[in-house]
Design brief:
This protein is an all-alpha fold. The protein has 14 helices and no strands. The C terminus is likely disordered.
């Protein structure tokens, strides 16, 4: 009931953000102009954005499949598809995609995968994804630093801040994998401090849960270290996945008739919009994603109405559309046992009828 309540709250936040944006456009008299500009886009180039989105989903599925193979876990194709799409749906409806892993864990568990191994697999995938996102951003920053300085000036600091946040997360993940005892001590010290300042009323089993999570994470990290070839393969797949997702704005801009743009500059700008959006503690990075896109892509399409039109198209293709098509997969979270029992009873009845 609590999870359902949280989802409804997050959906409410998304609806409020959409309503606030439409209200702003209407109040400033821009709604008609933005709507007209969206209707004039080249549908062929816009279709390219959807193709890039589906390629992203395919690579996401492939990355999950390869991570499962490291743990020697076999799942059928329908379960693989539903697990991927449930990660998309619940990830989009929670801050920093925090709901993706629990939803995928539940899906795999219903597919017959032991919950302990499920957690290990998803932690491994998260480690690789976080590493690739950070490295991708670092490469984009190094090769486009001149562009960022010239185009954005001090605003480029936002991108650097987003990168630093993700870098610290990655360092924390590596530290947890290599030095679990140190991390446990640090975690216990934080718990003690929280209790001292009465931020935690009851300690309960929090220390044991912390220890269990750290050990689970460390074992996942070791498993990755023993499968270096597979790790590199999954990292490459994840890199291609991000490349597809970060290419969507290029197709959006081309659909608006703006052709004198540098593809790699767009990739760099999108990478940093993503870093900023995932740092915003709201479902789907709401507010932060839209604001960062308008800020960074106004340079390519023009400030004001063109930037807002591009943002709406980009946000629909990369966020709202995949959330909508992933929603029906919620039905796959229903347990199999009642269904299996029903099938057995049906089989017995049919046998009696034949007699």
């Amino acid at each position: 009931m609590t999870k359902t309540k949280n989802i409804l709250i997050n959906l409410g936040i998304l609806v409020l953000v959409i309503a606030a944006f439409i209200g702003y456009l209407s109040y400033t008299g821009r709604l008609g102009a933005v709507s007209a500009q969206i209707q004039r886009v080249d549908k062929f180039w816009l279709l390219g954005g959807f193709v890039a989105l589906f390629a992203y989903l395919a690579f996401e599925m492939l990355a999950l499949d390869q991570t499962l193979k490291i743990a020697r876990i076999k799942v059928d194709k329908p379960r693989l598809v539903s697990t991927t799409m449930l990660g998309i749906f619940f990830g989009n409806l929670t801050p920093s995609t925090s709901g993706a892993q629990p939803a995928q864990a539940a899906s795999l568990a219903l597919g017959g995968v032991p919950i302990g191994r499920t957690a290990s697999v998803l932690l491994s995938k998260f480690i690789i994804f976080q590493a690739v996102v950070t490295v991708f951003a670092a490469v984009m920053l190094v090769f486009n630093i001149g562009f960022f300085r010239a185009a954005y000036g001090n605003i480029a600091l936002l991108a650097i801040v987003g990168f630093v946040v993700h870098l610290f997360v990655l360092i924390g993940l590596v530290a947890a994998g290599l030095f679990p005892k140190w991390i446990s001590k640090l975690g216990n010290a934080i718990l003690n401090l929280a209790k001292k300042f009465k931020l935690i009323k009851r300690m309960g089993n929090k220390r044991q849960r912390l220890e269990d999570e750290v050990q689970k994470f460390a074992s996942s990290f070791k498993e990755l270290q023993h499968n270096k070839v597979k790790l590199v393969v999954i990292a490459i797949i994840t890199g291609l996945e991000l490349l597809c997702l970060y290419s969507v704005p290029y197709f959006v801009i081309m659909s608006m008739g703006i052709t004198d743009v540098n593809y790699f500059n767009i990739l760099a700008a999108t990478a940093f919009v993503n870093l900023i959006a995932t740092s915003v503690p709201l479902p789907g990075g709401s507010g932060g994603a839209e604001g960062a896109f308008i800020l960074f892509f106004g340079h390519f399409v023009g400030k004001g109405n063109p930037a807002m039109s591009a943002m709406i198209l980009w946000r629909f293709i990369t966020f709202y559309f995949p959330t909508i098509i992933a929603a029906p997969f919620i039905t796959h979270l229903k347990p199999k046992k009642p269904l299996q029992g029903f099938e057995k009873r049906k089989h017995k009845v049919l046998k009696r009828i034949k007699k």
